Amino acid sequence: MNPITHLLASWTLADGAGIFDRDRKIVTWAGVVPDVDGLPILLDGFNALVLHRSTDWYVRFHHAATHGLPAALLTCALAVGFAKNKAKTALFSLLSFHLHLLCDLVGSRGPDPDDIWPISYLAPFTNRWTISWSGQWPLNAWPNVAFTLTLLAVVFYRAYKVGYSPVSLFSKKADEAFVSTLRNRFAVKS
Fold first, then answer.
1. What is the rounded CA–CA span in Å between residue 54 and residue 130?
2. Using omega within 30 degrees of 0 as the cis cutoff, is the peptide bond preceding 124 cis?
3. Angle (deg, nearest 10), helices 69-82 and 21-30
């Protein structure tokens, strides 16, 4: 799925966990971390645009380096190191990470029906325990769009109700402006 969808899903999970602001942010980022192995797409783009040669770093490394249990455990350990409520943050960081894997398993296929993206659960150490699903839908399929729109609706509702949103992951001031604008726009008239 799209990294933005992963961020929204992880934030929604973290928000529902009822944890401190800092721990909520940690849990949210734990659900986005698996896509670090997708950064080679930038190198492929640079190589194509500047060096005028085609490379396949993204295809080789995405879903291969940080989409498995070793990365989940490392992410959890880092989360615990920065968390206030260590036990709850550890649990929800693992859940958030695995939510990412589940979302990718069901909705990350390429445009070609044979372009299935498996999850190598023990990667990068071994390809044993590789999981794939032949029913995986494409990235731009309607279920992914519907899921993202549903998550956006939840985010807008929660921002209006509780006074914070995923925007806080980037800037507290921007989040305050977002929530204020949302509340002013949809203010209940008495």
1. 28
2. yes
3. 160
- For residues 131, 26, 6 and 172, what is the CA-based torsion angle, rounded to 10 degrees? -170
Q: How far apart are the first and last CA of the chain?
A: 42
For residue 121, CA distances in Å to 57, 109, 130 come to 20, 17, 6
- CB-based contact 19:161 (threshold 8 Å): no
Which residues lie across from 120 on neighbouring strands? 130
What's the domain count of the chain?
A: 1
Give the model confidence (pLDDT) of 128-172 as tens digits: 999 999 999 999 999 999 999 999 999 999 999 999 999 999 999
Would residue 70 count as lying in a domain? yes
**Domain span at residue 18?**
3-138
Residue 159 placed within a domain: no
pLDDT in tens, 39-98: 888 998 999 999 999 998 888 887 788 999 999 999 999 999 999 999 999 999 999 999
